[in-house]
Please model this.
Amino acid sequence: MRKSDNSTRRQFLGLAGGAAVAGAVPLVTLRPAGATPATLAGAIRGITGGAEVRTGKVKLDVPPLVENGNTVPMTVSVSNPMTSEDHVKSIHVFNEKNPQPNIGNFYLGPRAGRAQISTRIRLADSQKVVAIAQLSDGSFWSASVDIVVTLAACTEEVI
Amino acid sequence: MASALINVPASAKRGDIIEIKTLMSHIMETGYRRTAAGELIPRDIITSFACRYNGVEIFRADLFPAIAANPFITFFTVATETGQFDFEWIGDQGFSETASASITVE
Model:
């Protein structure tokens, strides 16, 4: 009697340990450092259609430490000529942790002369902001910045 | 009452790259905030902005709730000819505003 009790206890511990190990493995593999949440990845896929997004060309200028998330100055510039054969078609800006992943889509053309836009954005939390530029040849380039926000925007209560 | 602030150089040399700055006063209510009573405040934002240069669209933007109140947008264009810039903001709840600025190109 005592022997069978022991064996069930051992079996239970073995199962629990196995489950913990099995649980820990996907946790590690699914969330590497700098992982982007699914909504952000989905929004980016909506723009790129699954095309490869390379890092570079794009410069995303945002203060790394933001006191007030309600208005954060942001400048996106793309180092690319603006000719009719080779120009930046659009700039898309995304965030990771606001209620919605989109921030803005900006459509330029060869007549812009310089691929640079500025605006002021809202950030609900410390997070990563991603800017993606689409060139006239169909390629996508990106830059991202991690921003620390002390006062969050968007969801505070109205008095 | 909505009002726009536009900054376009009054004159430029042909081929110059000029910066255009625009600001439209608007609350840009996100639709995610609640009153003290817990009721959700409906979304009220500008969803689209466009700029035409002598009738030809040179810049367009889709805006989302993550754009700060009183949307401030700057961009560049090449001064090609004397004429007029027309700006248009369209948003929720029937919001629609226009503004214009003229430029002399030598």
Observations:
- Chain A has two domains: 1-31, 38-151.
- Chain A touches chain B through 35 residues (CB under 8 Å).
- The CA atoms of residues 61 and 75 of chain A lie 5 Å apart.
- The radius of gyration of chain A is 23 Å.
